[in-house]
Amino acid sequence: MAYNIVTIAGSLRKDSFSLKIANALAKLAPASLKLEVITLAGISFFNQDLEGAPPADWLAFREKIQKSDGVLFVTPEYNRAIPGVLKNAIDVASRPYGKSSFNGKPVGIISNSPGPLGGVSAAKTLQNILPGIAGPIMQQPETYLNAVGDAFDADGSLVKDSLKTVLQAYIDAFAAHVAKHHG
User: Fold this and answer.
1) Which domain holds residue 26?
2) CA–CA gap between residue 135 and residue 113 (Å, rounded)
3) pTM
4) The Cα angle at residue 161 between residues 156 and 164, in degrees rounded to 5
5) Using CA atoms, how far apart are residues 176 and 54, in angstroms rounded to an integer?
6) How far apart are CA 19 and CA 149, in angstroms?
């Protein structure tokens, strides 16, 4: 049996590095994990006034998270934090208060950037946001992917061997993290 992992690409850009990394992870995942890569397109803005009758897109996103066995965030860094679309999705899925869809779900975080810092501030933002609304966050290996600009070919396939090695180590560790918390 494979654990179903919702893998959230934290960027809306069609050719985003986050989406390419998420797709590469899905291909590298061991048989114990089945990664469903999703984007956040179509999730309307969180507004507490709508909680009494949540929009259908909120309910569908919450249900997808609730039915999963874990969540993997792959995020770029915008202005030393996560993109607004990702924060919005987290707000949507973590409500109503006390009923977060992320509760109990093992979580993984990978940040990325074409620049030298690898999105470390974005990862740290998620590490600040998720405790209290999510399950156990995998602590090691911390993975901040820098210089990802040349890691993929025109078809979006991973071609940088050094990145493949890092992603393989990460997804194998994440598989162990998920199994530990479901075992």
Assistant:
1) 3-181
2) 26
3) 0.97
4) 70
5) 35
6) 13
Look at the chain and report how many structural domains it folds into: 1
Q: 76: which residues sit within 8 A by CB, 6+ positions away? A: 10, 11, 16, 17, 18, 83, 111, 112, 113, 119, 122
The tokens of 97 are what? 């208060």
For 1, 15, 25, 102, 104, the CA distances from 132, given in Å and listed in that order, are 29, 32, 26, 10, 10
Contact 114, 144 (CB under 8 A): no
How crowded is residue 15: how many other Cβ atoms within 10 Å of its Cβ? 10
- Cβ(4)–Cβ(34) under 8 Å? yes
Three-state secondary-structure class, residue 115:
coil
CATH number, domain with residue 71? 3.40.50.360
Per-residue pLDDT of the chain (183 residues; tens, 9 = 90+): 899 999 999 999 999 999 999 999 999 999 999 999 999 999 999 999 999 999 999 999 999 999 999 999 999 999 999 999 999 999 999 999 999 999 999 999 999 998 888 999 999 999 999 999 999 999 999 999 999 999 999 999 999 999 999 999 999 999 999 999 997
CA–CA distance, 84 with 51 (Å, rounded to integer): 20
